[in-house]
Protein backbone atom coordinates (compact mmCIF):
# COMPACT_ATOMS: atom_id res chain seq x y z
CA UNK A 1 0.00 0.00 0.00
CA UNK A 2 2.85 2.47 0.79
CA UNK A 3 3.00 5.21 -1.84
CA UNK A 4 0.14 3.70 -3.82
CA UNK A 5 -1.51 7.06 -4.32
CA UNK A 6 0.25 10.36 -4.90
CA UNK A 7 -1.30 13.60 -3.74
CA UNK A 8 0.39 16.74 -5.03
CA UNK A 9 -0.24 20.03 -3.22
CA UNK A 10 0.50 23.22 -5.18
CA UNK A 11 1.46 26.05 -2.81
CA UNK A 12 2.84 25.91 0.72
CA UNK A 13 0.81 28.73 2.28
CA UNK A 14 -1.99 28.52 4.82
CA UNK A 15 -4.20 26.14 2.84
CA UNK A 16 -1.52 24.03 1.13
CA UNK A 17 0.93 23.51 3.97
CA UNK A 18 -1.82 22.76 6.50
CA UNK A 19 -3.46 20.31 4.10
CA UNK A 20 -0.16 18.55 3.31
CA UNK A 21 0.59 18.17 7.03
CA UNK A 22 -2.95 16.90 7.76
CA UNK A 23 -2.75 14.36 4.92
CA UNK A 24 0.65 13.03 5.94
CA UNK A 25 -0.52 12.76 9.53
CA UNK A 26 -3.64 10.81 8.59
CA UNK A 27 -2.35 8.17 6.19
CA UNK A 28 1.06 6.68 5.45
CA UNK A 29 -0.22 4.86 2.36
CA UNK A 30 -0.49 8.17 0.50
CA UNK A 31 2.63 9.92 -0.68
CA UNK A 32 2.31 13.69 -0.29
CA UNK A 33 4.37 16.04 -2.47
CA UNK A 34 4.29 19.78 -1.76
CA UNK A 35 5.39 22.04 -4.62
CA UNK A 36 6.33 25.50 -3.35
CA UNK A 37 8.97 27.86 -4.78
CA UNK A 38 9.62 29.88 -1.60
CA UNK A 39 11.96 28.64 1.13
CA UNK A 40 9.61 29.60 3.91
CA UNK A 41 6.01 29.62 5.00
CA UNK A 42 4.74 33.16 5.66
CA UNK A 43 2.30 33.93 8.47
CA UNK A 44 0.95 37.11 6.78
CA UNK A 45 -1.22 38.39 9.68
CA UNK A 46 2.03 39.01 11.58
CA UNK A 47 3.87 40.69 8.70
CA UNK A 48 3.30 44.09 10.36
CA UNK A 49 5.09 42.93 13.52
CA UNK A 50 7.94 41.64 11.37
CA UNK A 51 8.19 45.05 9.69
CA UNK A 52 8.31 46.82 13.05
CA UNK A 53 10.79 44.35 14.58
CA UNK A 54 8.33 43.31 17.30
CA UNK A 55 8.65 39.73 16.01
CA UNK A 56 11.51 37.90 14.32
CA UNK A 57 11.77 36.22 10.92
CA UNK A 58 12.06 32.72 12.42
CA UNK A 59 8.70 33.25 14.16
CA UNK A 60 6.74 34.75 11.24
CA UNK A 61 8.45 33.15 8.23
CA UNK A 62 9.75 29.74 9.37
CA UNK A 63 11.76 27.74 6.83
CA UNK A 64 9.79 24.98 5.14
CA UNK A 65 12.55 22.40 5.63
CA UNK A 66 12.31 22.98 9.40
CA UNK A 67 8.52 22.78 9.38
CA UNK A 68 8.48 19.59 7.32
CA UNK A 69 11.23 17.63 9.01
CA UNK A 70 9.98 14.14 9.91
CA UNK A 71 6.42 14.93 8.77
CA UNK A 72 6.26 12.60 5.78
CA UNK A 73 5.79 15.38 3.22
CA UNK A 74 8.20 15.58 0.26
CA UNK A 75 8.90 19.22 -0.64
CA UNK A 76 9.79 20.16 -4.19
CA UNK A 77 11.13 23.72 -4.30
CA UNK A 78 9.70 24.65 -7.66
CA UNK A 79 6.78 26.43 -9.31
CA UNK A 80 3.98 24.64 -11.13
CA UNK A 81 3.63 26.07 -14.63
CA UNK A 82 0.82 23.97 -16.16
CA UNK A 83 -1.58 21.21 -15.26
CA UNK A 84 -3.05 18.67 -17.65
CA UNK A 85 -6.38 17.56 -16.22
CA UNK A 86 -6.79 14.71 -18.69
CA UNK A 87 -3.43 13.00 -18.16
CA UNK A 88 -3.30 14.04 -14.44
CA UNK A 89 0.18 15.36 -14.91
CA UNK A 90 1.72 18.76 -14.08
CA UNK A 91 4.82 20.56 -15.27
CA UNK A 92 7.12 22.73 -13.18
CA UNK A 93 9.34 25.71 -13.92
CA UNK A 94 12.45 23.53 -13.86
CA UNK A 95 10.93 21.24 -16.49
CA UNK A 96 9.86 18.37 -14.23
CA UNK A 97 6.74 16.38 -14.93
CA UNK A 98 4.82 15.02 -12.00
CA UNK A 99 1.80 12.74 -12.17
CA UNK A 100 -0.84 12.78 -9.47
CA UNK A 101 -3.86 10.82 -8.29
CA UNK A 102 -5.23 13.83 -6.47
CA UNK A 103 -4.18 17.46 -6.79
CA UNK A 104 -4.71 20.38 -4.40
CA UNK A 105 -4.52 23.89 -5.84
CA UNK A 106 -3.63 26.23 -3.00
CA UNK A 107 -1.53 28.82 -4.79
CA UNK A 108 -3.07 31.89 -3.14
CA UNK A 109 -3.35 35.31 -4.72
CA UNK A 110 -1.16 38.09 -6.06
CA UNK A 111 -1.27 41.89 -6.08
CA UNK A 112 -4.15 43.32 -8.11
CA UNK A 113 -3.26 46.56 -9.87
CA UNK A 114 -6.67 47.08 -11.53
CA UNK A 115 -4.69 48.18 -14.59
CA UNK A 116 -3.52 51.41 -12.91
CA UNK A 117 -0.39 52.57 -14.78
CA UNK A 118 2.81 52.58 -12.75
CA UNK A 119 1.79 50.13 -10.01
CA UNK A 120 4.16 47.38 -11.17
CA UNK A 121 7.09 49.76 -11.61
CA UNK A 122 6.72 52.18 -8.71
CA UNK A 123 4.54 50.71 -5.97
CA UNK A 124 5.59 48.23 -3.28
CA UNK A 125 3.20 45.39 -2.43
CA UNK A 126 2.76 43.97 1.05
CA UNK A 127 2.25 40.23 0.63
CA UNK A 128 5.68 38.57 0.44
CA UNK A 129 9.09 38.61 2.11
CA UNK A 130 10.47 40.39 -0.97
CA UNK A 131 7.83 43.12 -0.48
CA UNK A 132 8.76 43.35 3.20
CA UNK A 133 12.46 43.86 2.38
CA UNK A 134 11.67 46.62 -0.14
CA UNK A 135 9.47 48.36 2.40
CA UNK A 136 12.08 48.02 5.17
CA UNK A 137 14.59 49.63 2.82
CA UNK A 138 12.19 52.49 2.07
CA UNK A 139 11.40 53.06 5.77
CA UNK A 140 15.11 53.03 6.62
CA UNK A 141 15.77 55.64 3.91
CA UNK A 142 13.00 57.88 5.24
CA UNK A 143 14.19 57.45 8.82
CA UNK A 144 17.85 58.20 8.10
CA UNK A 145 17.61 60.81 5.34
CA UNK A 146 14.53 62.82 6.22
CA UNK A 147 13.38 65.64 3.97
CA UNK A 148 10.83 68.19 5.08
CA UNK A 149 7.22 67.27 4.28
CA UNK A 150 7.98 63.85 2.84
CA UNK A 151 5.02 61.54 2.36
CA UNK A 152 4.40 57.83 2.18
CA UNK A 153 1.13 56.74 0.57
CA UNK A 154 -0.69 53.51 1.43
CA UNK A 155 -3.33 52.71 -1.20
CA UNK A 156 -6.40 50.78 -0.03
CA UNK A 157 -8.06 51.13 3.37
CA UNK A 158 -9.03 47.50 3.84
CA UNK A 159 -7.55 45.64 6.79
CA UNK A 160 -4.01 45.41 5.32
CA UNK A 161 -3.88 49.11 4.41
CA UNK A 162 -5.19 50.32 7.77
CA UNK A 163 -2.95 48.01 9.81
CA UNK A 164 0.08 48.92 7.73
CA UNK A 165 -0.61 52.67 7.91
CA UNK A 166 -0.73 52.52 11.73
CA UNK A 167 2.52 50.54 11.91
CA UNK A 168 4.29 52.82 9.43
CA UNK A 169 3.22 55.94 11.33
CA UNK A 170 4.70 54.47 14.53
CA UNK A 171 7.91 53.44 12.76
CA UNK A 172 8.41 56.79 11.06
CA UNK A 173 7.53 58.77 14.20
CA UNK A 174 6.88 62.03 12.34
CA UNK A 175 9.75 61.69 9.80
CA UNK A 176 7.16 61.29 7.02
CA UNK A 177 3.45 61.89 6.75
CA UNK A 178 1.50 58.68 6.12
CA UNK A 179 -1.40 59.10 3.68
CA UNK A 180 -4.07 56.39 3.50
CA UNK A 181 -5.94 56.50 0.20
CA UNK A 182 -9.29 54.83 -0.34
CA UNK A 183 -11.63 55.05 -3.31
CA UNK A 184 -14.71 54.12 -1.24
CA UNK A 185 -16.35 56.36 1.32
CA UNK A 186 -15.10 54.57 4.44
CA UNK A 187 -12.30 52.43 5.78
CA UNK A 188 -12.59 48.70 6.51
CA UNK A 189 -15.75 48.22 4.47
CA UNK A 190 -15.97 44.52 5.41
CA UNK A 191 -15.08 44.86 9.10
CA UNK A 192 -16.97 44.84 12.37
CA UNK A 193 -18.15 48.28 13.60
CA UNK A 194 -16.16 48.14 16.87
CA UNK A 195 -12.95 47.39 14.98
CA UNK A 196 -13.66 50.16 12.48
CA UNK A 197 -14.15 52.73 15.26
CA UNK A 198 -10.94 51.58 17.00
CA UNK A 199 -9.07 51.79 13.71
CA UNK A 200 -10.34 55.32 13.01
CA UNK A 201 -9.16 56.42 16.47
CA UNK A 202 -5.76 54.72 15.97
CA UNK A 203 -5.27 56.44 12.59
CA UNK A 204 -6.23 59.80 14.07
CA UNK A 205 -3.88 59.40 17.07
CA UNK A 206 -1.03 58.72 14.67
CA UNK A 207 -1.84 61.64 12.35
CA UNK A 208 -2.41 59.33 9.40
CA UNK A 209 -4.08 61.44 6.68
CA UNK A 210 -7.13 59.56 5.52
CA UNK A 211 -8.36 60.39 2.00
CA UNK A 212 -11.61 58.61 1.15
CA UNK A 213 -13.39 58.89 -2.24
CA UNK A 214 -9.97 59.27 -3.87
CA UNK A 215 -9.16 57.02 -6.80
CA UNK A 216 -5.55 56.48 -7.83
CA UNK A 217 -5.16 57.04 -11.56
CA UNK A 218 -1.39 56.84 -12.01
CA UNK A 219 1.52 55.86 -9.79
CA UNK A 220 4.76 57.63 -10.73
CA UNK A 221 8.24 57.46 -9.18
CA UNK A 222 7.69 60.50 -6.97
CA UNK A 223 3.96 61.19 -7.01
CA UNK A 224 0.45 59.84 -7.34
CA UNK A 225 -2.29 61.19 -9.55
CA UNK A 226 -5.66 61.05 -7.82
CA UNK A 227 -9.20 61.60 -9.01
CA UNK A 228 -11.16 63.33 -6.24
CA UNK A 229 -14.74 64.44 -6.99
CA UNK A 230 -14.03 64.65 -10.74
CA UNK A 231 -10.91 66.76 -10.11
CA UNK A 232 -7.39 65.50 -10.76
CA UNK A 233 -4.88 66.05 -7.96
CA UNK A 234 -1.17 65.37 -7.78
CA UNK A 235 0.20 64.07 -4.50
CA UNK A 236 4.00 64.08 -4.23
CA UNK A 237 5.24 61.08 -2.24
CA UNK A 238 8.50 59.30 -1.50
CA UNK A 239 6.92 55.86 -1.75
CA UNK A 240 3.64 54.08 -2.51
CA UNK A 241 2.50 50.84 -0.89
CA UNK A 242 -0.28 49.10 -2.80
CA UNK A 243 -2.68 47.00 -0.70
CA UNK A 244 -5.77 47.70 -2.79
CA UNK A 245 -6.70 44.34 -4.24
CA UNK A 246 -6.22 40.66 -4.76
CA UNK A 247 -5.91 38.84 -8.09
CA UNK A 248 -5.44 35.15 -8.85
CA UNK A 249 -2.76 33.68 -11.05
CA UNK A 250 -3.09 29.88 -10.78
CA UNK A 251 -1.04 27.82 -13.24
CA UNK A 252 -2.99 27.26 -16.47
CA UNK A 253 -5.18 24.17 -16.46
CA UNK A 254 -5.78 22.19 -19.65
CA UNK A 255 -8.65 22.11 -20.38
CA UNK A 256 -9.38 25.39 -18.61
CA UNK A 257 -11.28 25.40 -15.32
CA UNK A 258 -14.36 27.47 -14.51
CA UNK A 259 -13.33 30.85 -13.11
CA UNK A 260 -15.49 33.17 -10.97
CA UNK A 261 -15.21 36.79 -9.79
CA UNK A 262 -11.62 37.94 -8.95
CA UNK A 263 -10.33 35.01 -11.04
CA UNK A 264 -11.01 32.50 -8.25
CA UNK A 265 -11.53 28.87 -9.30
CA UNK A 266 -15.14 27.80 -8.97
CA UNK A 267 -15.43 24.96 -6.44
CA UNK A 268 -18.13 22.83 -4.92
CA UNK A 269 -18.78 22.98 -1.19
CA UNK A 270 -16.73 19.77 -0.80
CA UNK A 271 -13.71 21.68 -2.21
CA UNK A 272 -13.49 19.87 -5.56
CA UNK A 273 -13.11 22.02 -8.64
CA UNK A 274 -16.45 22.24 -10.46
CA UNK A 275 -16.64 19.31 -12.88
CA UNK A 276 -13.57 17.51 -11.45
CA UNK A 277 -13.06 14.28 -9.55
CA UNK A 278 -9.35 14.49 -8.89
CA UNK A 279 -8.60 18.19 -8.43
CA UNK A 280 -9.41 20.15 -5.29
CA UNK A 281 -8.73 23.79 -4.38
CA UNK A 282 -8.58 25.73 -1.13
CA UNK A 283 -7.61 29.11 0.28
CA UNK A 284 -7.74 32.40 -1.61
CA UNK A 285 -7.66 30.82 -5.08
CA UNK A 286 -10.82 28.79 -4.42
CA UNK A 287 -14.31 30.28 -4.72
CA UNK A 288 -16.09 27.94 -2.31
CA UNK A 289 -19.79 28.68 -1.73
CA UNK A 290 -21.16 29.40 1.73
CA UNK A 291 -24.70 28.42 2.75
CA UNK A 292 -26.16 31.30 0.73
CA UNK A 293 -24.05 30.35 -2.31
CA UNK A 294 -21.74 33.39 -1.94
CA UNK A 295 -17.98 32.75 -2.18
CA UNK A 296 -16.28 32.55 1.21
CA UNK A 297 -13.85 35.37 2.05
CA UNK A 298 -10.19 35.08 1.04
CA UNK A 299 -8.69 34.85 4.53
CA UNK A 300 -6.17 32.72 6.37
CA UNK A 301 -8.90 31.77 8.77
CA UNK A 302 -10.97 30.18 5.99
CA UNK A 303 -7.88 28.55 4.42
CA UNK A 304 -6.77 26.91 7.68
CA UNK A 305 -10.25 25.63 8.49
CA UNK A 306 -10.54 24.11 5.01
CA UNK A 307 -7.39 22.00 5.41
CA UNK A 308 -8.67 19.17 7.68
CA UNK A 309 -11.90 18.82 5.65
CA UNK A 310 -9.90 18.81 2.44
CA UNK A 311 -7.50 16.13 3.73
CA UNK A 312 -10.46 13.97 4.80
CA UNK A 313 -12.22 14.45 1.43
CA UNK A 314 -9.10 13.55 -0.56
CA UNK A 315 -8.73 10.28 1.34
CA UNK A 316 -12.48 9.60 1.08
CA UNK A 317 -12.35 10.18 -2.69
CA UNK A 318 -9.43 7.71 -2.99
CA UNK A 319 -11.42 5.18 -0.95
CA UNK A 320 -14.56 5.72 -3.08
CA UNK A 321 -16.46 7.14 -0.09
CA UNK A 322 -18.74 10.18 -0.02
CA UNK A 323 -17.27 13.64 0.60
CA UNK A 324 -18.38 16.17 3.17
CA UNK A 325 -19.13 19.84 2.61
CA UNK A 326 -16.97 22.56 4.16
CA UNK A 327 -18.71 24.93 6.57
CA UNK A 328 -16.82 27.99 7.74
CA UNK A 329 -16.95 28.90 11.42
CA UNK A 330 -16.42 32.68 11.57
CA UNK A 331 -14.11 33.17 14.55
CA UNK A 332 -14.09 36.97 14.32
CA UNK A 333 -11.53 39.58 13.38
CA UNK A 334 -8.32 40.84 14.95
CA UNK A 335 -6.58 44.02 13.74
CA UNK A 336 -3.08 45.23 14.50
CA UNK A 337 -3.32 48.99 15.08
CA UNK A 338 0.27 50.13 15.64
CA UNK A 339 2.99 49.09 18.05
CA UNK A 340 1.52 47.18 20.99
CA UNK A 341 -2.04 48.04 20.04
CA UNK A 342 -4.85 45.93 18.51
CA UNK A 343 -8.62 45.57 18.28
CA UNK A 344 -10.54 42.31 18.48
CA UNK A 345 -14.15 41.44 17.74
CA UNK A 346 -14.77 37.74 18.22
CA UNK A 347 -17.86 35.76 19.15
CA UNK A 348 -19.56 38.65 20.95
CA UNK A 349 -16.34 39.83 22.63
CA UNK A 350 -14.81 43.22 21.85
CA UNK A 351 -11.45 44.35 23.14
CA UNK A 352 -8.82 46.97 22.24
CA UNK A 353 -5.44 48.21 23.45
CA UNK A 354 -2.24 46.52 24.66
CA UNK A 355 -4.01 43.48 26.16
CA UNK A 356 -5.77 42.90 22.85
CA UNK A 357 -2.38 43.15 21.10
CA UNK A 358 -0.91 40.46 23.36
CA UNK A 359 -3.97 38.24 22.98
CA UNK A 360 -3.78 38.63 19.20
CA UNK A 361 -0.11 37.63 19.05
CA UNK A 362 -0.60 34.72 21.47
CA UNK A 363 -3.57 33.45 19.42
CA UNK A 364 -1.49 33.57 16.25
CA UNK A 365 1.45 31.77 17.88
CA UNK A 366 -0.95 28.95 18.71
CA UNK A 367 -2.16 28.83 15.10
CA UNK A 368 1.31 28.44 13.58
CA UNK A 369 1.53 25.41 11.27
CA UNK A 370 3.50 22.37 12.42
CA UNK A 371 3.31 21.17 16.03
CA UNK A 372 7.08 21.65 16.56
CA UNK A 373 7.16 25.22 15.28
CA UNK A 374 3.96 26.08 17.15
CA UNK A 375 5.55 24.96 20.41
CA UNK A 376 8.86 26.77 19.82
CA UNK A 377 7.12 29.95 18.61
CA UNK A 378 4.71 29.98 21.56
CA UNK A 379 7.44 29.30 24.15
CA UNK A 380 9.72 31.93 22.54
CA UNK A 381 6.91 34.49 22.55
CA UNK A 382 5.99 33.71 26.19
CA UNK A 383 9.67 34.01 27.20
CA UNK A 384 9.88 37.50 25.66
CA UNK A 385 6.65 38.66 27.27
CA UNK A 386 7.31 37.26 30.74
CA UNK A 387 10.80 38.79 30.92
CA UNK A 388 10.91 41.28 33.83
C1 LIG B 1 -0.40 41.63 5.05
C2 LIG B 1 -1.52 40.63 5.12
C3 LIG B 1 -2.18 40.43 6.33
C4 LIG B 1 -3.21 39.50 6.42
N1 LIG B 1 -3.84 39.34 7.61
C5 LIG B 1 -4.80 38.40 7.74
C6 LIG B 1 -5.47 38.20 9.00
O1 LIG B 1 -5.19 38.90 9.98
N2 LIG B 1 -6.39 37.21 9.07
C7 LIG B 1 -6.72 36.42 8.00
O2 LIG B 1 -7.55 35.52 8.14
N3 LIG B 1 -6.13 36.61 6.80
C8 LIG B 1 -5.19 37.57 6.64
N4 LIG B 1 -4.58 37.77 5.41
C9 LIG B 1 -5.01 36.96 4.25
C10 LIG B 1 -4.22 35.66 4.23
O3 LIG B 1 -2.85 35.92 4.14
C11 LIG B 1 -4.63 34.83 3.03
O4 LIG B 1 -6.03 34.68 3.02
C12 LIG B 1 -3.97 33.47 3.10
O5 LIG B 1 -2.58 33.60 2.98
C13 LIG B 1 -4.50 32.53 2.03
O6 LIG B 1 -3.85 31.32 2.12
P1 LIG B 1 -3.51 30.49 0.80
O7 LIG B 1 -2.92 29.20 1.25
O8 LIG B 1 -4.67 30.47 -0.10
O9 LIG B 1 -2.41 31.38 0.05
P2 LIG B 1 -0.98 31.83 0.52
O10 LIG B 1 -0.85 31.78 1.99
O11 LIG B 1 -0.75 33.12 -0.19
O12 LIG B 1 -0.01 30.73 -0.09
C14 LIG B 1 0.06 30.48 -1.46
C15 LIG B 1 1.40 29.83 -1.74
O13 LIG B 1 1.38 29.31 -3.06
C16 LIG B 1 2.64 29.51 -3.63
N5 LIG B 1 2.46 29.48 -5.09
C17 LIG B 1 1.90 30.44 -5.89
N6 LIG B 1 1.90 30.04 -7.17
C18 LIG B 1 2.48 28.81 -7.20
C19 LIG B 1 2.78 27.90 -8.24
N7 LIG B 1 2.46 28.15 -9.54
N8 LIG B 1 3.39 26.73 -7.92
C20 LIG B 1 3.70 26.45 -6.62
N9 LIG B 1 3.44 27.28 -5.60
C21 LIG B 1 2.84 28.45 -5.88
C22 LIG B 1 3.10 30.85 -3.10
O14 LIG B 1 4.51 30.97 -3.16
C23 LIG B 1 2.57 30.80 -1.68
O15 LIG B 1 3.52 30.34 -0.76
C24 LIG B 1 -3.57 38.72 5.29
C25 LIG B 1 -2.90 38.93 4.07
C26 LIG B 1 -1.88 39.87 3.99
C27 LIG B 1 -1.17 40.07 2.68
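-> sequence recovered:
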Amino acid sequence: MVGQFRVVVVGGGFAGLTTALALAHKRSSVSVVLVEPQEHFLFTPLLYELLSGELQTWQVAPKLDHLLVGCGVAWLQDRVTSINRQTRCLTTGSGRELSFDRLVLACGGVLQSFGVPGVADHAVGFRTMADLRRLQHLVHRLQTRPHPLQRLAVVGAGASGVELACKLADLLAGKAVVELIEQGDKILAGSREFNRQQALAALQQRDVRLRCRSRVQVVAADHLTLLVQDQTETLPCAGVIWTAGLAMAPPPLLPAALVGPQGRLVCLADLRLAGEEAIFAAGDVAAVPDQSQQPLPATAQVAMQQAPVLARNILASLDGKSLQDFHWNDLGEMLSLGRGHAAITAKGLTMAGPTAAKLREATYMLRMPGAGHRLVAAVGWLGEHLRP
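The CA atoms of residues 163 and 337 lie 5 Å apart.
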